[in-house]
Design goal:
The protein is mainly beta. About 0% of the residues lie in helices and about 50% in strands.
Amino acid sequence: MLFVVDSALTLTLEGTEHALEPGSYAFLPPGAAWTLHNRSEETATFHWVRKA
């Protein structure tokens, strides 16, 4: 799970892009292919919560 706190991020999950803004969250299924990019000039802050 990703929780966006500051800035905007672009999540690519299994080939599909999703815009994440402050307050957004995304569930990342186990084994999913994903990338996260900060395309803005601002520093991004997010929390990545994963199950051990």
